[in-house]
Amino acid sequence: xxxxxxxxxxxxxxxxxxxxxxxxxxxxxxxxxxxxxxxxxxxxxxxxxxxxxxxxxxxxxxxxxxxxxxxxxxxxxxxxxxxxxxxxxxxxxxxxxxxxxxxxxxxxxxxxxxxxxxxxxxxxxxxxxxxxxxxxxxxxxxxxxxxxxxxxxxxxxxxxxxxxxxxxxxxxxxxxxxxxxxxxxxxxxxxxxxxxxxxxxxxxxxxxxxxxxxxxxxxxxxxxxxxxxxxxxxxxxxxxxxxxxxxxxxxxxxxxxxxxxxxxxxxxxxxxxxxxxxxxxxxxxxxxxxxxxxxxxxxxxxxxxxxxxxxxxxxxxxxxxxxxxxxxxxxxxxxxxxxxxxxxxxxxxxxxxxxxxxxxxxxxxxxxxxxxxxxxxxxxxxxxxxxxxxxxxxxxxxxxxxxxxxxxxxxxxxxxxxxxxxxxxxxxxxxxxxxxxxxxxxxxxxxxxxxxxxxxxxxxxxxxxxxxxxxxxxxxxxxxxxxxxxxxxxxxxxxxxxxxxxxxxxxxxxxxxxxxxxxxxxxxxxxxxxxxxxxxxxxxxxxxxxxxxxxxxxxxxxxxxxxxxxxxxxxxxxxxxx
Length: 578
Hints:
Elements: H1 2-10, H2 14-46, H3 51-99, H4 103-109, H5 111-136, H6 138-153, H7 155-202, H8 204-209, H9 213-265, H10 271-313, E1 334-341, E2 351-358, E3 363-368, H11 374-379, E4 389-394, E5 397-398, H12 404-409, E6 411-414, E7 423-424, H13 425-429, H14 438-447, H15 451-455, E8 464-465, H16 474-487, E9 492-496, H17 504-518, E10 522-526, E11 538-543, E12 546-551, H18 553-559, H19 561-568, H20 573-577
Parallel strand pairs: 3-10, 3-11, 6-9, 9-10
Antiparallel strand pairs: 1-2, 1-4, 4-5, 7-8, 11-12
Helix pairs in contact: 1-3, 2-3, 2-6, 2-10, 3-5, 5-7, 5-10, 6-7, 6-10, 7-9, 7-10, 9-10, 14-16, 18-19
């Protein structure tokens, strides 16, 4: 998975990658050349007292060092630039994939996991890419080159490598077997912490109201401790690994000096060559250590890459049609024909055999007990989810055969939970129509019964809106959400239990104002409050996912037992008859 992602998202930066490889090659060659120069300096310059030769070699060494430094700086710059661009593109791809998910896929992954995948997981892959450019690719080049140079320098001393490298390889294998599973578990536990934290932030009022602060602190503490234990296991492994590798490195240096000293004493090796060989041994072992460090980072990046690829490979159950059919004229004529919807693997459908028509200029209400499928029914219209049976038609054409953008452009949705974006009141109201004038905004606010409290704000339409609209009350957020949908002037207006946060007076005024401006708009309202839908042109009663009755209030009071029970649970017989 990691290789797949790297290949795919590094393709636009091939030129920079080739430059990075060139810088690594220059850096490696210059690094390998320096010990040789040092040996020549000691053997032919210092040992013989040749000052001119010392100056000559010294100048070459300075130039080589400058070349190494320049290549390192340029390498770091290119590696940072490419890895940051790679991270940006990958985050964008994950975000685009998530934006295309239907409600089914969003529920499958969950918000905390998707946030972690697009932040922490992408960051881990990005970090490994940067380190790979600066360390991992250069380590084998330098290591292999140093082995060749060490063998050329002295074959007998090179025998030390036959002992050291197998020991280091065995140590690496043992460590990887312990660390790789821990990294995968760690990402799952990070998801868990995000989930608990999001719940506690969102439900802070409930937690305080029920005096559960201590219990929630304990719950978060348990999740945090669980992650800490896993991280400690990884950290302890690292704590054993690096001292062990450093010990091997230092013992190798001692062995080189010990055996090399004997060769120098016997006249079989020059001092300069011994110095060069020591440098090559250090380069070899340093390269191995860098490779080990990267090898230990790769499993975590691979685990993150798997999670990212899972998101990228997940296809939305709502697929854009390749040959869209759009009606000649948008009227908002909506038809449900024997509609069924069930979740994958579910024994029973959420909706079954739903058939009704919502006409332009009419107020269609949908009512039913909790869990009867009202919100699911509404989600089928803008294709947040797709039917698993039957068909939903808009202006005579199956919504699945229409382009998503053209479909959404004709629908104004006021969700059950009003949500406002950070910015200004004006920016939120123009969300559906960017070029709306101030007059249009105020007109929509008048209908939504929101102009009174907005006009009292110091900056009116330019007043700030906090993230989620938390600086407004629930009723104010709902009215702004309704105004936002009205500014769009859609053919179909959908209200998903949007009046429940309003008081009865505001609800009545809003419904009256909506009737005056509705014109040829198809208005569909899901409601729990019976008083909201008494004047509806058509009421669809749902019971356990099936239509239990269709008609006006008066007709249903006579023909539908389910509707009558709902009405009489909220209104007196006199109120229901009026």
